[in-house]
Known about the structure:
Layout: H1 2-12, E1 14-24, H2 28-40, E2 44-51, E3 62-66, H3 80-91, E4 95-98, H4 104-113, E5 117-122, H5 126-132, H6 138-154, E6 161-164, E7 179-181, E8 205-211, H7 218-231, E9 236-242, H8 246-257, E10 262-267, H9 273-281, E11 285-288, H10 302-310, E12 314-316, H11 320-329, E13 332-334, H12 343-352, H13 367-380
Parallel strand pairs: 1-2, 1-4, 2-3, 4-5, 5-6, 6-7, 8-9, 8-11, 9-10, 11-12, 12-13
Helix pairs in contact: 3-4, 5-6, 7-8
Amino acid sequence: MLLFSHLVKMAESKKIILASVLKPVDEPRILHKLGLSLRETNKYRLYILGFPAKKASIFPEITFETLFNGKRISLSRFLAGPRLIWHILKQKPSLVIITTYELLPALCLAKWIQPFKAVYDIQEDYALNILYNQTLPKLFQRPLAEIIKAIERLGDHCVDWYLLAESCYLKGNKNTTNRTVLENKFQGTIQAKESVILDRSAGIHFVISGTLTEVYGVETAMRWFQALTQIEPIHRLTVIGHCPLESYQERLQILQASCPQIQLRTSSTPLPVEAIREATESAQVWLMPYHPIPSICDKMPTKLYEALALGIPVLITPNELWETTLSRYQAGLSVDFQRLDQLPECMDKLSTTRFYTILPGTEVTWESEKARFLQVIRQLLPNQ
């Protein structure tokens, strides 16, 4: 009887589709933040579309569907839009949330065919990324950035609400009546319980995790660590994450081969969240060697929130915004990873500073954002 009533309730629930292209269906923001926040209300039937996960959904109210399953640069990627339209026409959702500009044309066309509320979760400034993240030849950067801006302007005709993963995305947007900032804060409970003093003599375990690209400074930090091991060989570094460019992955492998203290684990597709989390939680210091470029410097790194919640000291590129957050909790140090002459001074500070003298609270977690997200959903679907 309980199972029957549960199935009836699921059938009566309003349907919501959350769709991405390159990100896996179990990606932290789309599943653990947006998806599970909606699930907790017990009001909706969720369909998450994106890059396939290695595991099926463990939640009966959430269905995973593949929207794209191929190489980053692939003609089959153009089929993601038509697939989204097919899913919308099949499921007849009350609301659709997309997380990338390339699904906007399909979203607008589907909404013209069949009414529903549309939300665009802006996780990146895609045009700015194209101009500065060095993933494409310069000849194509400016034209493609302008195309992306044109596509995003199309969204103003069909998007009912915008979610912004960064407050800096509000810049240049005078109309803020249908926009809500939902920062990509840590999903989980605060694990920072006490202050931290590192034992340099026992060796320090450093980690770099996440997307591994040139502008995120991975190679620069590996060279910094290599120079450190020439002075103090007792330390070790784990580098783990998604490396979308094969040529860059090969460069990292060559660098790792010359430094046995570096463990390198890369993949051309996104790695499971559990693997990343296991690597970071076992480390003692988190390296965040971002390049100070316009597509990065105004953003708050998700990894910084995660490090704060886990109580892991951070070494990060100098940046006033990030330094303000670090100083609030005495959570880390600013480091110019290209200044190898400053290595001894950096290590002295790292080994003599007491970190996390003020412990972070829920302000660094998704719990501080969730209520605003659910308020947006209630506003769009008021009869729920």
